[in-house]
Model the fold of this input.
Amino acid sequence: MKPPILITNDDGIDSPALAALETALSQIGRVTVVAPDRERSAASHSLTIHEAVTCHQIAPNRFAVEGTPADCVIAALQRIMKAPPGIVISGVNRGTNMGDDILYSGTVAAATEAVLRGIPAIAISAFLDSDYQSAAAVAAGIAARVLNEGMPPDIILNINYPKQWNGEFRLTHQGRRSAEPFSDHEALALGFVSICPLQINRTAHEYFDHFADWIGQIPALKRGL
Done:
């Protein structure tokens, strides 16, 4: 039996790029779509906490949520799906999510929410008006490998698809707003599909010694003030 797959996005349930992803992933799994009922781009990891999150079933295995991308993942896991999915894929986002934009991305946040709950997740984004079907096929290929081999805990794969793909992949780091070497920005500028592993734990371990000395020189902290 094909594994269960949850897909979502931040562009809304009617996005053609979401439909492309659904078609591609249907080849490898039993897909459930749970997505915002309207555009929720740049929602980051916001949650709806002061009002009810309403879900509407609009077709078999398709649900529209009056909430953010992270709300969609929570609703899917707690209220809609009978069993946890083998993987969550967020996208295909219409517009890239790399560099500094990762901080604002509802697409990446939805994948992050899944990983926080112990489920492997991928975020897939592409340039506006690019080949969403090809980007979806890339996501499906990577998802198939994750389903077969698993993924390290607390890791999100952030994938970005270029305007014109050169047919190759590049492992990248999160850049800034420039094409620095081996960054996600540079990879897309050169036509690669960028695969950037992100992590949940944002602790700056390499600076522990620096701040240990720094804290030791603050008298007020020594006095417990």
Q: What stands out?
A: Helices lie at 16-25, 69-80, 106-116, 132-149, 184-189, 208-216, 219-222. The chain has one domain: 4-222. The CA atoms of residues 75 and 138 lie 27 Å apart. The longest strand covers residues 87-94.
